Amino acid sequence: MRARRPTTRLAPLPPRPLAMLAALAGGFCAAPASAENFPLSLGVSQQVQHDSNLLRRDTNIESDTISSTGLQIGLDKSYGRQRYTADLVGRINRYSNFDVYNNNSYDLNGGFQTEIGRDIALGLNGNTTEELARFEDAGRSGLTTKNTRNVRQANARLTYGLHGPLSLNFNWSGFKQDYDVNNGYFEDVKSRTLGAGLSWSPRQLLSFGVGVSQTDSDVDSGSVAYDKTRRSVDLSTRWQVTGVSSLFGRVSLGKEERDLPGANSWKNDNWSALVTWNYRPRGRLVFDATLSRTTGSTGSLTETDYGLFGFFTTSQNEATTSTALNLKVGWEATAKIRLEASADYTLYDRSRRVAQASGLFGNSSASASTSSHFTAFGLSASYTPYRWLQLSCGAQRLKRTADLTFGYNSFDADIVYCSGTFYINGMY
Description:
Elements: H1 20-25, E1 40-51, E2 64-79, E3 82-95, E4 103-116, E5 120-132, E6 148-160, E7 166-179, E8 188-203, E9 206-220, E10 225-239, E11 245-259, E12 266-282, E13 285-305, E14 311-332, E15 337-358, E16 362-386, E17 389-400, E18 411-423
Antiparallel strand pairs: 1-2, 1-18, 2-3, 3-4, 4-5, 5-6, 6-7, 7-8, 8-9, 9-10, 10-11, 11-12, 12-13, 13-14, 14-15, 15-16, 16-17, 17-18
């Protein structure tokens, strides 16, 4: 439901460990008491987590223990052909050693779906989030002060053709991200996206899709603000190979234009591809694998007039290619016990070229290229002894190699956590 970030500067990393409680506990709508029995769910939770390298540094490593107390409220109500959903997660996060980072976070979601007539469906969704900025996104300087990230997003989707082989869909989404302190690593972004697509299902188990979209963004990195427009064409397919195996693939071709202050407009081509495989050999065992590759680039061209000395022109290009493999295995050992293991690997290839031209001093250029990678391994287990109680524990191992040319240091971190969630409506 959430819109993707319009900017690709930051390296994608796994979800914040403090937020993993909601996923492990199953969220509001997956609370032990289903919406069929009662449309409202209410839960309270407590998580304790130890992080061996809280600030994600390669030197002067500091560990900390974080306590997170949460309140969960959920709504899932169907009324005729309409469905209303809403959920709120509020947390009080307290750090044992680095109390400067103490914060209160929340995540509020709302949704509405309905069918109009026989062939039209409408979906509306919204989200607002407030949380502490991630330490791993802060670059070499680190997150030296408390920095809060606020996100507000909304989207609407209209689909025509629900029962035939062809369907049309129209999409609109809005995204706004603000930081208390914004810089080159933490950027304020405001974007609007319009899109349309066509889906064709020649067979019940096979479908193809094509779509076009345009995203207009306003970006403020603290030192510079600029406008960005991206147009893309998406091709996708979904195939139910067998009763226990399915494949999904997507290729996106895009063109991006940035309007930088004091510089000419800069256009870049980029593309991304993704393949997802889902395999369920047995009812209680699930395998998920995703392979993706994304390319992106930024550039600027600046001219400075030095009068009698003529013009001094500087052009800069940066290109980033990321290749990611994500694996996950889930096993419901019993009706009360669930185990999960995950592995994530992302390889980053970055290059930068700076060229300068001057009628007086001649031409010069410099280039640099680096490679780095990020790995994450996770294990978790949950136990639901009663409908109103769920207990979870897990561990994560994170590792990133250095990319000092582009401002990212190396780090290793080990995270262990345990949590308990008490569902009030699960008692009835």
